[in-house]
Design goal:
By secondary structure, this protein is α/β, with parallel strands linked by helices. It contains 9 helices and 10 strands. The protein has a 6-stranded mixed sheet, sandwiched between helices. α2 links the parallel β1 and β2.
Length: 304
Amino acid sequence: MTMTATKTLSHLDWLEAEAIHIMREVAGQCSNPALLFSGGKDSICMLRLAEKAFRPGKFPFPLVHVDTGHNYAEVIAFRDKRAAELGERLIVRSVEDSMKRGTVVLKHPGESRNKHQSVTLLETIAEFEFDACIGGARRDEEKARAKERIFSFRDEFGGWDPKNQRPELWNLFNARCHKGENIRAFPISNWTELDVWQYIEREGLELPSIYFAHTRPVVRKGASLVPVTDVTPAKPGDAIEDVRVRFRTVGDITCTAPVESDADTVAKIIEETATTTITERGATRLDDQASEAAMEQRKKEGYF
């Protein structure tokens, strides 16, 4: 009798298989999906998962990014480079265009544009008639994200109701929507920040340089380090320091802070991530700190 060797799947293998299954469910059930791609570490992992799910064919969806106009240049350059390398269609829509149309109105010129991405995203969904948007959100990031299903139903206004979500028993996903409604699908919902970095190491994925330790001028504001940039200049009386930092998460400059770090390789970042007692968004996303309900309210209004 011939014995067949079986492979024992690792923790990352299981997470990868689940994410690929979810992506294929979106492609199979939805007629016009899109993959949200910002150039950040989570969406970089999503691209690799899409490659494994659909190559050697083309992706069954375009890549979409909602640009605030205040994103880090290194990340935007990486976004464009990676999309070109893959030969996939990249659709970019800007909050600045929404401002010109009058659908986004800032309270003052210095207001963060981050939350206003919801408006531009909903306009983009309407423009291209997307019935699903695949995102890289994870449940460990923030309390409101932890409440959300893997297939998150959004109504005709783009809103999310945390008290009215579809069951997902036995990983059965329901993407049925009426015209104007859509699904936000999150294949890496069950991943942690550490899982993401371990997957990046295993797959040898390239990243924007700001994820690694570098020296940058910052101003200390409580527990956060606010980067000094053209968008976030130092105010009179601020003490500017040159500090060795890296970014754990990236987004709009006005709300994304780095952390002090000497981790200049993926291996060092993994070691640092495994031992930190501060959550990924705890001292790095300035907009989340204003209120515990901030993210949940934004998601109700159409946020990612």
